[in-house]
Amino acid sequence: MPSACVPLVPQPPTITLQSPKDYIFDPREHIIIHCEAKGNPQPSFRWARNGTDFDVKSDSKIVMNPGSGTLDIDIIGGKAEAYEGTYQCTAENEHGKALTNKIVIRQSRSPLWPKERNEAMVRQKGAPLVLRCQPPAGLPPPVIFWMDNNFQRLQLDERVSQALNGDLYFSNVLPEDARDDYICYARFPHTQTIQQKQPISVVVLDMDTLNETLAALYNLTDFSGGEYNPQGERRPRILLPSEPTSTKMVLKGVLLQLECIAEGLPTPDVSWQKVGGELPNNRMALHNFGKILQISDVNESDAGDYRCTAKNKLGLVHHVIKVAVKAAPFWISAPKNLILAPNETGILTCRVNGSPKPKISWFVNGVPIENAAADRSRKVDEDTVIISNVQIGSSAVYQCNASNEFGYVMANAFVSVLAEPPKMLTPPNLVYQVITNSPAFLDCSSFGSPIPTISWFKDGRISIENGDQYVIHENGTLEIMVAQVLNTGKYTCVATNNLGMRENSVNLEVKEPTRILEQPKYKVVQRGMSARFDCKVKHDKSLIPIMTWLKDRGELPDDERFEVDSDSLTIKNVVEGDEGTYTCMMKTSLDQDSASAVLTVVGSTPTPGIFYGKPDPPTDLELTDQAERSVQLTWTPGDENNSPILSFVVQYEDSLHHKGLWVNLTEVDGSKTTTQLELSPYVYYSFRVLARNNVGYSEPSNPSSQYRTNPAAPDENPSNVQGVGTKPDNMVISWMPLTGYQANGPGLKYKVHWKRRDMDESWSSQNVVDKSQLVVDGTPTYVPYEIKVQALNDYGNGPDPEIAIGYSGEDVPLSAPEKVQVKVQDGTLAEVHWKPVNASSVRGQLQGYKVQNSMKPNLSYIRTEKVIVFSGDQSHGQIPDLQPFSIYRLSIKVLNNKGEGPSSSNQTFETPEGVPGPPSFLNVVSPGLDSLSLEWGPPVNNNGRLTGYTLRYQPVNHSAEQGFVHELNFFANETATTLDNLNTSMLYKFYLSAKTIKGSGPTITEEAFTNCFVVSLVCAAPTVGPAFGAVNASLAEEGVVISWEYFGHHKNVAVQYTLENSKEDWTKEWVNGTHSHMIKSLKPGMSYKVRVVATDEAERMHSSKEVPVTVPAVPNRQVDIATQGWFIGLMCAIALLILVLLIVCFIKRNKGGKYPVKEKEDAHQDPEIQPMKEDDGTFGEYSDMEDHKPLKGSRTPSNGTVRRDESDDSLVDYGEGGDGQFNEDGSFIGQYSGKKEKDTHEGNESSEAPSPVNAMNSFV
Question: Where is the composition biased (Polar residues) (predicted)?
C-alpha cells in the first residue's frame, strides 16, 4: 500500500536507509554516514560514537542533514583519523526508538613499500623459483600484479603463475626467464595509488656449458647442491600450500578459493577432486591454469576434503585441503511490523541460522529486554516475543540481534497499538471498463485496526462469494475471471471491524471487442493504376475507434496520392516504391485489432503471375444449437490465396481449468464451414478455427464467445490404482487423480474400497478429498487385497470401478536357510548349496539370497568380506574371485523388500594353494663398471607358501638385440643379490618371478646400464661436454678409414657421408661399437664430407664436426719405378759416391779439420730444433738423415688408431700415424704426429691444442 494513501495514524519510527556495517572512506572526500527513518510524528535523530552519545553540533566539521540523521563530515585538510570509530544512529518519536546497525568507520590506507635490497636470484636451468612480493598491509588489501620496466605485464602460464598472496612461482626456470626487472606492483583501490617493490634480478645457469669456475664467478657456495642443481627431469612437488596438510575455513555465501602450485620437470598439470563427493559444476570455476579452484556462494555441502593432484610423466603428488564451512548469522525470517488493536495478541519471531549457532538478544527501544521496564503482557521465548492483551500506549520498537563469532544481524520491528475504524482508500465511484471474455479487477483498499473484513455486493443486493467466476483476494480486490456483458453493473465493497463499517461503490462496464470483419486483400497492380484496400470493422458503439494505416509497420508516406477513408485506403498512380505490406489498425481505449495485405507493382504489360500463400484465418465464428454436451460452430472462410483450402482445424480453450492452453478438438473437410462439436460437462469453452491448404496453416481465427457446459457426474474413474505397504501393519492405496477437465463438476472426491482377497469378508470403504492416496492401518503382514477406487462429485458417482490387487506391508524374514554346504572347485572358485526357506516365513516378496563370505588368509591377519546376492528362489550358486590358500567363513540370509532375515550357521572352508602374484618391486641399486645390485620385495598376494624366486637376465645391445639369457634361483628369504662379471656400459634386462609349489607367478621386468669406464665422466651425464672429440680420416687400399674419439653412452652410432656441395641426403653406415670404420663405397676423384652421429634414447641426434675427404683418381697405367733396371743402377752409383764422401770426411776429422755440420752444431743449443732454409725450404744438413726417423720423445702407433684405455693420461696425448693421414680440417699431418712419451720434463711442453673434454674437466 503506498504510503501516500495511508491515513495519518500514529506510527513508531522505521529505519529506511543506513550505511553498510563496514565503511572505508577516502581521506580526500567527505564522510557520508546515512541514517533515514519515517514515522508519525516525524522522528528525531541522535548519534553514538564508540558506545558513547556525542553532540554532532559541537564539531563544526559535522553537519546533520535536515529532516534526517545523515551525517556529512568534512575531513578535507583535517585529521581524518580523528573520525574513525563505531557509529550508531537512533531515530525516535513518542511511540518508540529504532536503531541502525553499528557502522565501523575506517580510513583507507596505502602505505609505502619498506626499503629493501633484493639480492639476485640465481638458479640452475630447470630448478623451481619463488619471487616474494610481500606488499605492505593496506586498507582495503591491495591488488597485486607483476610487470617489467616497460610496464608490460608478465606473461603467466602453466609454468609461471601468481599466487593469491602475490608471490610469483616458477615450476621450473628456463634461460629466457633471466632478467633484472621483475617488479611487483600493489594497487590500492580506494586511493587509486600504486606502489612498487624494488626490481628483482633472476640469473638462470645452464650447466650444459658452465662449470665450477662460472659458479665461483657468482660467488655461489652451494652451486652443486640443493635447489640450484636439480637432477634433470623430476617428479612434481607441492610448493603451495607449503605444509604437509592444510585447512581452510570459509563463511557461507562467500567465495571459496583453494590454491595448489607445484614444481617439477616437465611442468606438472594440476587437477582437483573432492574426496568422497562431487565438485559443484554450476558454482565451480578454475583459474590460474587450474591451480586455483573457486566455488561461489558456498554452503554447508561444500565442506570436506579437497585433493589437488600435480602430475607429470615421472609421477604425481597429492595435497589435501580440509575445508570447514562456517556462517555468520543470516535471516530465515526477520521480525515483521505489527499493527494491533487493543486486547489483541501479537507475535514477533526472529528466525536466524549460522555456524556456530547464533545467540539471539532482544531489545526494546534500544534497551536490552531484560533491563527494560517490566511488562506482564510480554513473554520472551528464545527467538519469539509474545505480546498479549495489548493496550493503547504500549507501542514500541523491538530490536532482534543475532550474533556469533563471525558477525551479527539486527532488525527493527515495531508494535503499534491502534484503535481505528475502517477507512476507505480507494476513491469512490470509479468506473472500470473491460472487453468481453477478459478478466476484470475491482479494487477495494481499506485501513483499520483491527483489520477490516471485506465483502462485496452487486447492484446493492446480490452478495458475492468466492467461487466459480469470482475471486476475492486478501487485499479486498474482486476478480471476475471471464467478464461477460451480464456482469455490467454497480459493485459495492464493505469494510467492517468492531469499531465501525465503511463502504465504497464502483461501476463495471463490459464492452464488445473490436473486430475486423473484412480484411484488406493482396493486390497486384500495374504501374500508374490505382490500388484500394478495404478494412471494415465492428466495435463497441460506446467506444471511440481510431483507424490507422501503416506501410511496412511505419507511417504512410506524406503523399497526396494516398487517400484514407473511414474504412478504406486508396493509392493513386502507383509506382514501384509503393510496394510493401499495408496494415489497417483499429484501436479503442480498451483494445485493438489489425490486418495486413501486400501490394505488388508490376509493369504496364505484366506477365500474369500467381501468388500461392497460406489461407487467411476464418472469421465470424458463431455458436448455435446449444445442448448439454454439444454445440454447432459456424464460420466464414478467409481468402485461400490461390491454393484451395483442404481442411479446417477446430481448437478449444478451457478457461476454467487450463486458461491459455489451446487443444485440437476436431478436423473438418475444407468444403464445409460448420460442424457439430461433442463437449464435456463443466468446461468453459472458447473455440477458434485454422484453415489449411498446400502452403500451410493459416493464423488462428479470433476466439468465439465463451460457452459453458453444465456439471455432471464423472464419466471415468482414476487409473493406476495400486496397494503397497510401507509398514508391516499397513497398506497405502494410491491412484492417478482425475484432472479438472475429467471431473465433470465441482466437489470431486474418491470413494476407496478394499477387502482381503484370501478371506470371505465385506468391502470396507472411505471417501478421500484432495488426495491421491489412503493409508489403511492394522493389516496383517503381506497379505493380498482387492482394491477399487470410484470417482464422484456433487452431481453423482462415476461408473463401477475395476478391481486391482495390492499387498499389505512386508516385514523382515523369520527363517534362515538350512543345510548349507560348500564345494571348493579350485583356489578361486567354490559352489554353495542350501535348502530354501518356507514361503510363509519370507513375510514379503522374495528378492533372493544374500551370501556373505569373509576371508582370513593363512599367513596374514587381514580380514576381507564380500557379499553376493542370488536373485529369486535359488538353492545354489557359485562364489568366484576367491583368494587361494585362504580360510573362508560363509553364511546365507534370505532377502525381501523390507530387509534381510537371520543368518544361517557359519560354514568354514579352505582354498588350495595357487601361483603367487608378481613381486611387489624390483629395483637396481649401486651400478658398477661390471656389476649391478638388485633388490626386490615379496608379492602382495603369496597365494600359498612362497618357495623362492627365479631371476633371469640378458644383455641388450645398441640395436635392441637381446643376448643369452642367464637364470638364477633364490630362496624365499632372499630379496637382494649382486651380479658380477658384467660388460661395461651395457644395458641389461631383468625378469623376476616368485614361486610356490604350484609354480611361478607373473613376471616383473627392469632395465639398467652398467657404468662406463671413462675417467672424470659419468654415463648418466652425457651433457657435460660434447659427445665427439677429434675425427680423423686416412686413405687405405680398400677405402677411407674414419676414426674418432667418442665420449657418449648412446647405443646407436653411425658414420654418415655425402658429396661436397651436394644437397643429397647423407648416406649412413652403422658401426659395431668401435672407434673406427672403413668406408669402401667412395668414388675415386670425388670430394666428400664425413661425420659421425649418435642417437640417444629420446631420439635426439648428436653429431661430430664434418671432415672433408678427397679420394685420389686412379691413373690409367701405373709403372712401379722400383722394378726398373736403370733406377736400380742409379741408386747403386749414388750409394757408392756417398760411401766415398764419408771416408774422406772421416779422414779429415781425424786430422782435426772442421766441416759445415760441426759449425752448425756449435751455433745451436738444441740439435732437435732445425730451422728451414729460406732459399729452398729444406731442413738443415741433418734433414736427409732424419726424414724417416720419429721426433725425439715420440712414437708411432702400430695400427694408426689410439685406444682410450691405454693410459691414464689425457686423451690429447695421443695422435694418429701412418702415411697420407689427414687432420680434422683436411690438411696433411705427415709422420710427425706420433704419441709423446710421458717424460716428466716434457709433459708440460706440448704445443698441441687441448682436448675439449680435458678443457671441461678443468672446471669440475
Answer: 698-709, 1246-1260
d(Cα 1197, Cα 1189) in Å, to the nearest integer?
14
Place of cell 586455483: 292
Residue range 833-843, pLDDT digits in tens: 999 988 888 89
pLDDT digits 0-9 by tens, 1078-1129:
888 888 878 888 988 887 655 667 788 888 888 887 654 445 555 567 788 8
> What would the pLDDT profile of 984-998 be if each residue is shown by its tens digit?
778 889 999 999 988
Question: Could you give the 3-state DSSP secondary structure of residue 1254?
Answer: helix
Where residue 1246 falls among pLDDT bands split at 50, 70, 90?
very low
Residue 10, exposed/middle/buried by CB under 10 A (0-12, 13-18, 19+)?
middle
What confidence score (pLDDT) does residue 863 get? 57
| Residue 445 pLDDT class (50, 70, 90 cuts) | very high
315-324 average pLDDT score = 93
Residue 968 pairs with which residues in a beta bridge?
Answer: 951
Q: What angle do CA 145, 148, 154 make, to 5 degrees?
A: 55
Separation of alpha carbons 145 and 1232, rounded Å: 68
Beta strands per DSSP E along 588-718? 592-602, 619-624, 630-636, 647-654, 658-669, 674-678, 684-692, 707-708
Full DSSP string of 927-996: --SS-EEEEEEEES---S---EEEEEEEEE-TTS-B-PPEEEEE-TT--EEEE-SPPTT-EEEEEEEEEE
- CB within 8 A of 4, min separation 6: which ones? none
pLDDT at res. 1048: 61
pLDDT at 449: 87
Rounded to whole angstroms, the Cα distance separating 238 from 259 reads 11
The CA distance from 1197 to 231, in Å, is: 41
| C-alpha closest to that of 418 among 455, 441, 391, 438 | 391
859-874: b or e for each residue (b if 16 or more CB lie within 10 Å)? Answer: eeeeeeeeebebeeee
Count of helix runs (H) and strand runs (E) in the chain? 6, 98
CA distance 971 to 965: 20
Cα(351)–Cα(360) distance, integer angstroms = 9
pLDDT in the model for residue 1255: 33
Q: Hey, which bits of 357-499 come out as E strands?
A: 359-364, 367-368, 378-381, 384-387, 396-404, 407-417, 420-424, 430-435, 440-442, 446-449, 453-458, 462-464, 470-472, 478-480, 489-497
Q: What is the pTM of this model?
A: 0.46
- Taking the mean position of all CA atoms in its chain, how far away is CA 1227? 67
How far, in Å, are 192, 280, 485, 1112 from residue 513 at the CA level? 63, 53, 11, 115
Q: Do 506 and 442 form a contact (C-beta atoms < 8 A)?
A: yes
In degrees, to the nearest 5, what angle opens at C-alpha 860 toward C-alphas 855 and 866?
20
Among 406, 411, 218, smallest CA distance to 333 is for 411
> Helix or strand or coil: residue 705?
coil
Q: Which residues contact 317 (CB under 8 A, 6 or more apart)?
A: 235, 236, 237, 238, 262, 268, 309, 310, 311
Strand (E) or helix (H) holding 1163: helix 1156-1163
3-state SS of 243-311 is CCCEEEEEECCCCEEEECEEEEECCCEEEEEECCCCCCCCCEEEECCCCEEEECCCCHHHCEEEEEEEE
**What number is the average pLDDT over the span 908-915?**
88
Q: Express each pLDDT in 345-382 by its tens digit.
A: 899 999 999 999 999 999 999 999 888 888 888 898 88
Q: Give the per-residue pLDDT at 5.
A: 45
Give the per-residue pLDDT at 1009: 84
Residue 596: what are its φ and ψ, rounded to 5°? Answer: -130, 160
